[in-house]
Amino acid sequence: MRTCSVCDREYPREVPWRCSCGAPLDYASQPLPDSRPAQFSRASGVWDFADFLPMGERVSLGEGWTPLVDAPEWDATFKLEYLHPTGSFKDRGAATVIAEALEVGADRVLEDSSGNAGLAVASYAARAGLDAKIYVPASAKEAKVRRIERTGADVVPVEGRRESVTAACIDAVENGAGWYASHAWNPAFFAGTATAAYEIAAQRNWSVPDAVVTPLGHGTLFLGLYRGFRALEQAGWTDAIPRILGTQAVGYSPIADEEGSTPDAAAANDLADGIHIRDPPRAHQIRHAIDETDGAAVAVSAAATERERDRLSGAGFHVEPTCATATAALPQFRERGELQDGDDVVVALTGRNG
Ligand SMILES: [Zn+2]
Which pTM does this prediction carry? Predict the structure, then answer.
């Protein structure tokens, strides 16, 4: 069963891709394990956490179990999500959303993306033997588009703003062209990104950090972390939920603006192209996660993003600009009191493809 995230209307699993009221759907319940295993094999990627996952099928390219490493220069710990098979945390959600596609009998999946989600969904669809059609901005980087095409997926470039790409994909979904494997809408995707939280806790011997920081566009990882830490607490595996802190790009920062973020520049941050989302369909859930965890969101300028990307590269972390917003925001969070001295903070380094 699925339920609407706004009006609580219920739907069967197969259809539709959103509620008749327009809001995103979620699973009616979160599966929880009876007890904690004595040890993990760490052999099956996100499926090591199958007891928390609502689908029975499995697809894997070896995602998950990304390293958690010390970063003393940032007074933080980094979760190296950019070391995933296709280069970003999106592999977690692609594994679970494509497994769900198999379960509901879809034979072609559709997705719209500025890059990472498209590559992840196309790659996992190829792994599962499903056709994929990926809508991308006509302005997307050539190398990213080529990588998607090489999986065998159909790539559809769309002119105009990022919103037009989503609109074109939704039109195709509504016209029956395929099943919407969306990293913004499909709850199966968020079930997968929640495994980042399970791993962080497992790698810390079932303790949770004071805070986790992640780039925030659609909230694909942000909400996954919140849901994952919440499920762990409900299962009794951990006893707290960390503050969830999100970083947005100046000019594309609906949540940070509400939070009173004051970045060091007003010009749009065009570098952080992975989070150019002006109207995330799960904004109400992002706000709820911020309220529930005493979290926050701030906006980061292009200059700070570029500076921080160079600094990360100089320390051996080869990440894309979008990802650098997360460490670039640490001083802002500290100034605002959302991070304090001595806080134990995990920063997700989300992607390497930029
Ligand atoms: Zn509804």
Answer: 0.97
